Amino acid sequence: MKSLISFIDRLPIARKLLLLGILILPTIGVPTYLQLKSSLNAVSAASTEQAGLESARALLSLIQLTLQHRAQAATLLGGKNTVAASREATRAAVDQAIARIDQDQKARTRRPDMMRAWESAVANWREIAAAVDARKLSDKESTMRHTEIIEQYLSILDLLLDDTGLALDSEVGTHYLVRAALVSLPKATATLSLTRSRGAGILARGEASPTERAMLASLANAASDQADDLGKAFDKAFHAEPELSAALADELDRANTSIRAALDLATREIVSADAIHYAAIDYIKTFTGALDPLFALEARALDSLKALLIKSTA
Fold this sequence. Notes:
This protein is mainly α. The chain has 9 helices and no strands. The longest helix has 65 residues, at 13-77. The radius of gyration is 27 Å and the shape is elongated. The relative contact order is 0.11.
């Protein structure tokens, strides 16, 4: 040991510093490497989540169009030809949205189970769109089959959240906003839209059996419960990230007010009505007026989610 100390003492100052650097390099180098690796992994994960968010936005747009087509098809097949032109336009818009998503799915090389689910949903859509074109379905059959496709889309959305890491984000506010905007909100929107389609078909036919009234009452109750759950989901996000409340609370309040008005209409004019005479077109307009604020809330929530993901890498 003495000889080593003597050797170091005889070294020029530059070599002493070099030796010191070599000795302490492992001490500072390993933690620095680990920190750099962790930062790069975080940036990569955030980039994947951001790309997943844009894919989710496109899928939600497709769901919105399919919801619209479901209501228009139910009205058309119920006997109201006045919606024929708008239904055809919506059908074309759905086809275009599918083409864009199909290209995105293939470009990103999604997991096999997601691709199989997507291909199945697209095949089902093409089959039902052709059947509506040929008017081979009743309004009830059309609504049921549209609903099956929408459920497939929601399942694909769930797979997408897993595949891109959005479902597993470790930031509390981001996690709760993902749950509210990409799980609770799409489900609440789908149920409210189904209440629109079922009611539109009944009103287009001008009659409702006791079973149909009970079914619509059940749907309205489910839509009301999901609206309550949606508020709770967003409240969790607001508590974790208070700035989200300023961005989204007013949109949420507007949506809730419109939802209650639409559900009251369904109860008054169909579930509890002595006779069915309310205009299907007016019913659709009221429910569309309730759905539009939900779509607006969705758009703003996704913008807020994107901002949180960008913030996490800053």
